[in-house]
Amino acid sequence: MIRYFLACLSMIIALVASPSIAEQLEEQANELIDTALQSDLSWEILESLTTEVGPRLAGSPAEARARDWAVAKLSKLGFSNVHVEPFSMPGWERGNISIKVGEPYSQPLTGTALGKSVGTPVGGLNAEVVRFANYAELLTAKEGSLIGKIAFIDGEMVRTQDGAGYRLAGPRRWSGPYEAAKRGAIAVLIRSVGTDINSRTPHTGGTTYGDDAPRIPAAALSNPDADQLARLLAIKPGLTIHFTQTSRILTEVQSGNVVAEIPGSKFPDEVVLLGAHLDSWDNSTGAQDDGSGVAIVTAAAKIILDHGQPERTIRIVLFGAEEPGLIGARAYLKAHENNLDQIMMVTESDFGAGRVWRMDTGIAKTDEEKADRILAVLARLGVTKGLRTATGGPDVSVLSAAGTPAITLKQNGWNYFDIHHTPNDTLDKVDPEDLKQNTAVYAGFAWMVANIKGGFNRPQN
Ligand SMILES: [Zn+2]
After folding, report:
1. Catalytic one among 26, 179, 261, 322?
2. CA–centroid distance, residue 296 to ligand 1 (Å)
3. Is 322 a known active-site residue?
4. Which residues of the chain have pLDDT under 70?
């Protein structure tokens, strides 16, 4: 009798002491985080990509090599369904550049072509420069007021943790050339969209022309060169510049998105999509933009793969051709729009390798409680509760705009725009410990989303 009683008692104790399914999930996420914080895998992946492939301009043979690299790496790591989803796009070549101030202050300025910019006529162009203090001032210029002139779009860039400075300064690059062309300009120079005010390294990055204005050559000056030009124009309004640029748009070229999966054990048709982009600009090895993202999502998924099968499918998508304007993401949406309902969550790492400090959500209000449970686990890594306006990241914003739930794991971007789109975006700028923190956040996050009861619903409009 006593033995029976003791046996019953020990069973009751075991039942009471055994963690609930919810607690188990949190425990498992914590184990993954512990593993990721000890793992060098994300660094090894980043080192391999940036060293063995190097720069990988969208649509170039180098980007094709990056796809080969990714397929080989993801297959070797043991992922399932590794494949390339190809698409075509217009190619582009940077060419050479020369920017020379005219008499009596003859001197060269340091600049670089904006991505997708056309070149100048052979032999260059010679024209008067008109300065605008910022993009907003350019927009106040009258139609026809810039005929035959070079517009110089100046302006500050504010250093921020969350990238708000980029949204403010970015338009002079994104649409400055188009707006200047509408007003008659024959070329554009902008102050680099970057926070390294003392560096003579210009920042490239894509510009977008419009159909109702001519495509005019556009380049970015380094910050100190933009200072110099502003001073020269203050001394001599009407100063001329001789500008030669041999960049050109090529005919259709091939690119592609690289996909790999951990199939779900219980709900294989419910997908947690972890994104990053494989292409970089041609002027650097793209260690932060976006080699780090490739390394973070790949290593996080591999740590999960080694730990056990999730209930839902975890899908890595390494997008091609992000830099020229989310071309890979749009191709992905087009190819998958008929089964978009299967994508239960999107997130993307594409803001360097600074520590994740905030979690923004773009989910149904009724699922916020689940997001809070995930956040409670990530809190030990320094992640705080953020805004309810998440798009998930640049490429995956195309999917969340089409209705998929999204969560953004915001990285600290305080220093990101010092080297963004410059030749300085190299491996040495990435902090290995910060990279581990990112990998740990993604591993814990992805595991919880892929197993949490009920999953996530589309946010209501
Ligand atoms: Zn990027």
Report:
1. 322
2. 13
3. yes
4. 1-17, 461
